[in-house]
Structures are given as structure tokens and as C-alpha cells.
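Hey there, shall we discuss this one?
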Amino acid sequence: MTDLKFEDCLARLEQIVTALETGNLPLDESLKVFEEGIALARHCSRYLEDAERRIEILVKDEAGTPTARPFTPSEEEA
């Protein structure tokens, strides 16, 4: 699963949700795809957390020199 792209993972997760919502799967199959869905959701979450850590913003320090620093959600509002 580690080689899945985020978009592919999300698309498969949407397929699983649709299949479970229809209620047409046997119980064993429902459990199997539910477990797959949980694993995919965790994978997507880790992917997003990693992406957030990689995002940096460029700001000027006191001397006017551009520097990079990690993005924090509170800065988005400022």
C-alpha cells in the first residue's frame, strides 16, 4: 500500500464507501472491504500529515532576508 498515490487511495476508499452503503455485500465481504477501507484511510491520513510537515513558508526576518520556516495553521488566518 505504501506505493499507492494519494489520489488512487482516495478513489478506492470512495469505491469502498459506496459498496458498503449499498448494503449488497455479504457480511464476510463487507468486513473485508471495511478493513481495507480503514487501512486506506490511515494511509491517506499519514500522507496528508507528511505533506503538511513538508510545507514551508518564506518570510522575511528582522534584517529583511527571506527565510524558510515550517507552516503552522494559525498563520493561514493572519
Observations:
- Residues 59 and 67 are 5 Å apart (CA to CA).
